[in-house]
């Protein structure tokens, strides 16, 4: 089955951010590697990073940058693909940039490994670009197809490092601003001190706080943040 690279599919990212919006912190080399792949045909990148380190944001941003440069691009997030859905990789011939997120989810699955192997071969034959992300280093993934390991190791490799609290604060502020809200500094500090250390959960808390402020017609304040974290806000139906 052939997919239109411009068609909104369930496998496409829900929300794209520009590469310029990524909070770089200690990850300048990784961001530069992503930009290099977008700019150069016949290029591959294996991007390693822990959970909530920004892999998905960068892959989405790479697709957006490619489209804005007049290229076709396709994002495949393996967290949301049903088991046995390796056929999602069929029909991607001729696309300028293919980004495959969360390789960990299918490593060790024979059907997926074979499909990824053939995808890489097709991308290279078409002088395309490929970015693959995973939480583990390539050598630590339980991949059973040696040729796939070889193909994934052909190009660039980059690693995303965890952000410190100052960078996490900037991510939350930018995320809220993109949703039309402003997070005061004292609220950001409170979320960092009392919320999860995981960035995705911090962003979820910021989203719930924004929704609670809208629902209750209140300003975003530390007392409201305290209610949201304790589950006592109007946005939670209480």
UniProtKB/TrEMBL annotation:
UniProt-listed GO biological process terms: DNA replication initiation; negative regulation of DNA-templated DNA replication initiation
Residue ranges constituting the Hda lid domain according to the UniProt record: 165-229
Record protein name field: DnaA regulatory inactivator Hda
């Amino acid at each position: 089955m052939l997919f239109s690279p411009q068609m909104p599919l369930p496998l496409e990212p829900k929300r794209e951010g520009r590469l310029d919006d990524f909070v770089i912190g200690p990850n300048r080399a990784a961001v530069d590697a992503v930009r290099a792949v977008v700019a150069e045909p016949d290029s591959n990148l294996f991007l390693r990073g822990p959970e909530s380190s920004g892999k998905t944001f960068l892959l989405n941003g790479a697709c957006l940058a490619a489209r804005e440069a007049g290229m076709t691009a396709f994002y495949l997030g393996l967290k949301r693909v049903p088991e046995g859905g390796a056929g999602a990789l069929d029909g991607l011939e001729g696309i300028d940039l293919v980004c495959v997120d969360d390789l960990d989810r299918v490593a060790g699955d024979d059907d997926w490994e074979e499909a990824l192997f053939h995808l890489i071969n097709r991308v290279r034959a078409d002088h395309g670009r490929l970015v693959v992300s995973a939480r583990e280093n390539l050598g630590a993934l339980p991949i059973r197809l040696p040729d796939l390991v070889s193909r994934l190791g052909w190009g660039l490799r980059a690693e995303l490092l965890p952000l410190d609290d100052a960078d996490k604060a900037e991510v939350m502020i930018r995320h809220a601003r993109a949703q039309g809200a402003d997070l005061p500094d004292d609220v950001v500090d409170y979320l960092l001190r009392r919320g999860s250390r995981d960035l995705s959960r911090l962003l979820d808390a910021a989203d719930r706080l924004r929704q609670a402020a809208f629902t209750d017609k209140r300003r975003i304040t530390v007392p409201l943040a305290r209610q949201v974290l304790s589950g006592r806000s109007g946005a939670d139906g209480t």
